Amino acid sequence: MENFYIISTRKKSGERFVAEPGGVHYLRVPKSESRYTPAHSIKVKEWVDEVRGLADGDENPYSISPKGDILFFVHGYNNTQEVIFNRLKMLHKDLRAEGWRGVVVAFDWPSWDQTLNYLEDRSDAAAVSSKLVSHCLKLLANGQQQGCETNIHLLGHSTGAYLIMEGFSQAMQKKELYQSNWRIGQVAFIGGDVSAKSLQADSDWSTTLYKRIMRLTNYSNGHDAVLGVSNAKRLGVAPRAGRVGVDESHPKAVNVDCSSYFEGLDPDTSPHEGTFCHSWHIGNRVFARDLAMTMEGAIDRNYIPTRKMVDGRLVLIDAPRPAHMDKWGIDEMVSMRNDYPV
């Protein structure tokens, strides 16, 4: 891929973006660039057509989607543009190396201590998550109503998980979105800075999320010290999903415990951006392999080979794809769909 694609909600100041909320810019950034600027903006229709064209033009033979795949990456708190762009490139590289052929898009919001801080404590969260709704989910809904079958997925890191959940909650309040028939494929949280309780089956906050998605996969790590700090700020009364995991009482929720796998990683030899215990996922090929098979949907969540059941919990392990997966006939089955003999 010669370009990377970003939706930025940062304020434009001259020839650069600053860490303040602003308008929405659809960016096409050459892979040779080290950062993105307003000069990379293109018209929204051109942006959408290019991203969908790239996704649908390189369909994954391992995927059960009738068309291609797009993964929206929603970053966390206090991320610079350089970090966001580097993580976008790393995600794309690792997912491609693991056989996934979709397009990774970054949703960039101005995260720093004078704008949003910890989102659960500030009403500013509504302004940012509403842009996720109006400029991502609404584009998706409009496309699906017009027959677009491109599969859309969401990956939320840290407070990016909060933005995703709040975005779905706000979608319920928008009549045209609530009444329209749209869906998201897979949603995944890494280092999710949302309470574990908020993802339970009886949580009002996650109701819309679960109604509109195929599956929520929460990757937890008991050694995530950053989420330990986040939990301490709330006096320990709301353990974070990215640290303690989630209750799988909802049929669409699954937790993958990465704690044991993480213990064996050496930060000095593991590519990453940011605090390692909180950000190790992006740059890790085992995580990318698990995420790729999750988005493809061809293997049941309990049988993805990079997971092992230990004491009733799924844990992340280093294992390859099934050896003969390319001969399963997945792409043939998808292309024939209703006409395929079963």
Structure overview:
The chain is of the alpha/beta class. The protein is 34% helix and 21% strand. The protein contains 12 helices and 10 strands. Helix 2 (81-97) links the parallel strand 3 and strand 4 (103-108). Helix 2 (81-97) packs across helix 11 and helix 3 packs across helix 4 (159-171). It is globular.
| Overall pLDDT | 86
Question: What is the rounded Rg?
Answer: 19 Å
What's the number of helices?
12
Helix-strand string: EEHEHEHEHHEHEHHEHHHEEH
Helical percentage: 25-40%
- Main sheet strand line-up: 2-1-4-3-5-6-7-8-10-9
Q: Please give the number of β-strands.
A: 10
Structural class: alpha/beta
Shape by Cα distribution: globular
Percentage of β-strand residues: 15-25%
Low-confidence stretches are 119-123, 338-342
Query: Largest sheet, described in full?
Result: 10 strands, mixed
Query: Could you give the distance between the termini?
Result: 36 Å
Label this structure with key terms.
about 35% helix, alpha/beta, ten-stranded mixed sheet, 12 helices, disordered C terminus, about 350 residues
In short:
This protein is α/β, with parallel strands linked by helices and 342 residues long.
